[in-house]
Design brief:
alpha+beta; OB fold (Dihydrolipoamide Acetyltransferase, E2P); 4 helices; 6 strands
Length: 152
């Protein structure tokens, strides 16, 4: 009787652990959930700088690449979006995510994205030919290069 109770308790613990583990997924280098910047603090830190290195940022996922999962868009505090790319194209996240939260670790760089790159990203995102053709100027933006990602 005691063995049966112990086995049932162990099974319940195992199932509970498995269910919890499924709620958080790690990609790239394993990172922890300590010393994470909010999008508000991040926005104020990057406002007058060209880059920030070795930072962790928590934000809302707006979209991921539907082709390969090779990029992600995260909402910033001012409702703008930040492109997240993955270090050395070394890992991907699930394709087509359009909700949830993420924690990314890496560096943020203010850069100018060329028209060709903007059109390529629009194609990956499944934009119409008209939307792609409307891209005619480069865009200055902050791009985050992540070496590790947590999706919650």
């Amino acid at each position: 009787m005691k063995i049966k109770t112990l086995l049932l308790a162990a099974l319940a613990l195992l199932i509970g652990t498995f269910a919890t583990a499924q709620d958080t997924a790690y990609y790239g280098e394993k990172i922890n959930k300590k010393r994470i910047l909010s999008t508000k603090k991040f926005s104020s830190k990057i406002a007058d700088q060209d880059s920030l290195t070795d930072i962790k940022l928590k934000g809302e996922i707006l979209d991921t690449c539907p082709m390969k999962g090779c990029w992600m868009k995260v909402r910033l505090d001012d409702n703008s979006e930040m492109m997240v790319k993955f270090k050395d194209y070394g890992f991907f996240v699930p394709k087509g995510l359009k909700e949830g939260n993420t924690i990314v670790r890496g560096k943020a760089i203010r850069e100018v994205t060329s028209v060709a790159e903007l059109k390529h990203l629009a194609e990956d995102a499944g934009k119409s030919k008209e939307e792609i053709d409307a891209i005619t100027a480069p865009k200055e933006r902050v791009v985050f290069y992540a070496d590790g990602v947590i999706i919650e």
